[in-house]
């Protein structure tokens, strides 16, 4: 076994990435305060070829050194939009035909392991603030919520970790 060199990974340039076909998934960040988490979501969005990222409220926007520190340039390749409030973003995405999915622990959440995206649908996955999660007024607009099964004492994950898990579990269904 030999570790591959960067030149062997057949990576797309940012220009090639922008022109490539994307999966019908958008990550929506609802008032995410950590710029490192924002950068990590950009990098994950790039890795899984998402249609884009929507940044809302207090969520910082590129260009910013702290976002770049974890995004490593993905913020230049991935399409993104900013909205002053998440509710406005969600209503706009609904009008564009996206199914709105909150990533939150609610009384009627669906376990991530039980979720199978429809191949002809587009999804906007809403990830919440590191402390307060997805705002209730945003949860109220969601078509449904997904919950990551957890078995320890905390029952919470860092937002960028949650994004990585949920985005992979969603995208892998489109790869079949």
UniProtKB/TrEMBL annotation:
Keyword Metal-binding annotated: no
Molecular-function GO term, any one: RNA binding
InterPro entries: Alpha/beta_knot_MTases, rRNA_MeTrfase_TrmH, SpoU_MeTrfase, tRNA_m1G_MTases_N
A GO-annotated cellular component: cytosol
Gene Ontology BP, a term: methylation
Keywords annotated in UniProt: Methyltransferase, Transferase
Domain tRNA/rRNA methyltransferase SpoU type: 25-168
SUPFAM superfamilies, alphabetized: alpha/beta knot (SSF75217)
CDD domains: SpoU-like
Pfam families: SpoU_methylase
Protein name: tRNA/rRNA methyltransferase
Organism, scientific name: Geofilum rubicundum JCM 15548
């Amino acid at each position: 076994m030999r570790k591959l060199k960067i030149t062997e990974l057949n990576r797309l340039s940012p220009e090639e990435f922008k022109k490539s076909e994307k999966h019908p998934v958008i990550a929506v960040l609802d008032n995410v305060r950590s710029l490192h988490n924002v950068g990590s979501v950009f990098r994950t969005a790039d890795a899984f070829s998402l249609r884009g990222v929507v940044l809302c409220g207090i969520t910082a926007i590129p260009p910013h050194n702290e976002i770049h520190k974890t995004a490593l340039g993905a913020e230049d390749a991935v399409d993104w939009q900013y909205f002053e409030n998440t509710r406005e973003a969600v209503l706009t995405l609904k009008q564009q035909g996206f199914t709105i999915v909150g990533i939150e622990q609610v009384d009627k959440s669906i376990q991530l392991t039980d979720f199978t995206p429809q191949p002809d649908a587009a999804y906007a996955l809403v990830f919440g603030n590191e402390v307060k999660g997805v705002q209730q007024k945003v949860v109220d607009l969601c078509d449904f919520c997904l919950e990551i099964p957890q078995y320890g004492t905390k029952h919470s994950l860092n937002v960028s970790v949650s994004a990585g898990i949920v985005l992979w579990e969603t995208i892998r269904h489109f790869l079949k």
